[in-house]
Structure formats: structure tokens, C-alpha cells
Design goal:
single chain; 2 strands; about 170 residues; mainly alpha; elongated
């Protein structure tokens, strides 16, 4: 169908499986190593940088492999570099905040949202030749909404935990 992105991995099912696997790994590693995590800020910084590199690497790698960069993104080098910088910030914030909230307060919601966010990003970024570029859509619209939703859900979890702790005495 015209305008529908083509999966780089081979099929939509294979692309989704890869995205789910990497998302599950990203969300389960902090939990598996929770007793050995460094200071929350270091965990957040390292995880945020790794997430930004993974997301941008998947996006760029899929486009290099298929030679399918959107011409509109390459029109102005300043805009393209600005989009890459903003995308790195959004992708890094998505993972970094989730990891900080888990490492600092042991919240579970951020890890669930890290799983969902990583899966969404990789599934979108590993598909090419659609009507619009997923990097711009995610960085400018969906990513900030996702981060805000994660913060709101995390605050709700923290509030429930504190209320339960007060009720227990």
C-alpha cells in the first residue's frame, strides 16, 4: 500500500519481535541488577545516553541500509542537526527518567513504560519509506507526550505507595 512503511528486518512480525525483545531487555536489566545499581543519577545518565544511541542508531542504520533518507530531513543541515539533537534529548529523557525513578524510589511504572517506549521507538524506527519520518514525529510530538505520561503515572504510583505506607502505620 502506498505510504505504508516497509520493515527493514524482513516482516512486520519480525520487526515487532526484535523491538519487543530489545524493549524487554531494556526494562528487565535494571530490575535484574537492582542491588548493584550505582547512584540514581549515574544510572539515569548512562541509560539515557545508551537509549538515545540505540534509538538514533536504529533510525539511521535502517535508513543507511536501505538508502531511504527522507529528502525533507536533509534539506537544511541546521534543521537536521537540530532534529537529531532534540531527538537524542527526548530519547535520552525517556529512558533516563525511567531509570532514575526506578533506581531512586524503586517505582515499577517507569520500567513498564520503558518497555513500551523502547518497543514503540524501535518498531517505528526500523520501518522505512513511509509518508512521514518517524524520528521527527516521535521527537516533536509523541516522545514528549510519552515522557509526560510516564512522569504522571510515576507520580501516581509514588502517591499510592505513600498512602499505603501511611495506612499501614
Amino acid at each position: 500500500m502506498p505510504g505504508t512503511p516497509d520493515p527493514v528486518v524482513g516482516s512486520d512480525a519480525a520487526t515487532f519481535a526484535v523491538a519487543c525483545g530489545v524493549g524487554a531487555l531494556a526494562a528487565s536489566l535494571p530490575y535484574a541488577f537492582r542491588g548493584r545499581l550505582a547512584a540514581p543519577r549515574r544510572v539515569a545518565l548512562g541509560g539515557g545516553v545508551a537509549s538515545a544511541a540505540l534509538g538514533l542508531g536504529a533510525w539511521a542504520g535502517a535508513r543507511f541500509a536501505t538508502n531511504s533518507f527522507a529528502p525533507s530531513l536533509l534539506g537544511s543541515p541546521e534543521h537536521f542537526l537540530g532534529l537529531l539533537a532534540w531527538s537524542a534529548l527526548v530519547l535520552g529523557a525517556q529512558a533516563g527518567l525511567a531509570l532514575y525513578l526506578f533506581a531512586r524510589w524503586g517505582l515499577a511504572v517507569p520500567l513498564a513504560e520503558l518497555l513500551a517506549g523502547t518497543t514503540l521507538v524501535l518498531y517505528a524506527f526500523l520501518r522505512v519509506r513511509g509518508e512521514s519520518d518517524p524520528l521527527a514525529l516521535y521527537a516533536l510530538f509523541f516522545g514528549p507526550l510519552f515522557v509526560a505520561g510516564m512522569l504522571a503515572a510515576s507520580l501516581a504510583e509514588l502517591g499510592v505507595r505513600r498512602a499505603v505506607a501511611r495506612a499501614r502505620g
